[in-house]
């Protein structure tokens, strides 16, 4: 699985480093020559000095084994446009866009799909590690195997899972490439069976059923 990252700023470098440590095949694209050189010296991956928002450039770089495209520059619009271009040309590739503007963080699933965005991340709310977890599809704090290991009950603490608090369940579901069912949520020692419009809050504990 190859992952393309556009933007070698602090966040881009951090995420690239995390993925490289997990033995992922990372390609980093950076428009600024000096920044690209510094990243190349710092990271054990291919660093390309070019414009990651130019679809002609991306067509030359993207190969059949690319699974994820992360647009992590410091400009929201460039990140969103880049993801949209990739989604239109390569619909099988999952996209993540970094945004600073709160407006983009509140896009609903239909709006994200129209823009070609699978996931929108806001550095003020989510950590680099949580983005890596999305890619890895491993987001459970603890796992209880069921049905001879064919099913898992995942117990997730909202407080310890970046990006869950303040989001609706349908938003969380669309941001993670994994089939799962939130069977219940414990809040203030009371068990609730939630629907998709359930808003996750601090101290919530989620009981999630999914495939291993």
Q: Could you characterize the architecture of this molecule?
A:
By secondary structure, this protein is of the alpha/beta class. The chain folds into two domains: 2-136, 3-Layer(aba) Sandwich (Rossmann fold), CATH 3.40.50; 142-210, 2-Layer Sandwich (Alpha-Beta Plaits), CATH 3.30.70. It is built from eight helices and eleven strands. It has helices at residues 10-21, 33-42, 55-61, 76-89, 102-105, 109-115, 128-136, 169-175; strands spanning 2-6, 25-30, 46-49, 66-71, 94-98, 119-121, 142-146, 151-157, 180-187, 190-192, 205-210. A six-stranded parallel beta sheet has the order 3-2-1-4-5-6, with helices on both faces. Strand 7 and strand 8 (151-157) form a beta hairpin. Helix 1 packs across helix 7. The longest helix is centred in the middle third of the chain and has 14 residues, at 76-89. The radius of gyration is 18 Å and the shape is elongated. It starts with a strand and ends with a strand. The mean pLDDT is 84.
- CATH top level assignment of the largest domain: Alpha Beta
- The number of distinct β-strands equals 11
What oligomeric state do these chains adopt?
single chain
- Profile the largest sheet: 6 strands, parallel
Taken from the alpha-carbon principal axes, the silhouette is elongated
Task: Please render the helix and strand layout as text.
Elements: E1 2-6, H1 10-21, E2 25-30, H2 33-42, E3 46-49, H3 55-61, E4 66-71, H4 76-89, E5 94-98, H5 102-105, H6 109-115, E6 119-121, H7 128-136, E7 142-146, E8 151-157, H8 169-175, E9 180-187, E10 190-192, E11 205-210
Parallel strand pairs: 1-2, 1-4, 2-3, 4-5, 5-6
Antiparallel strand pairs: 7-8, 8-11, 9-10, 9-11
Helix pairs in contact: 1-7
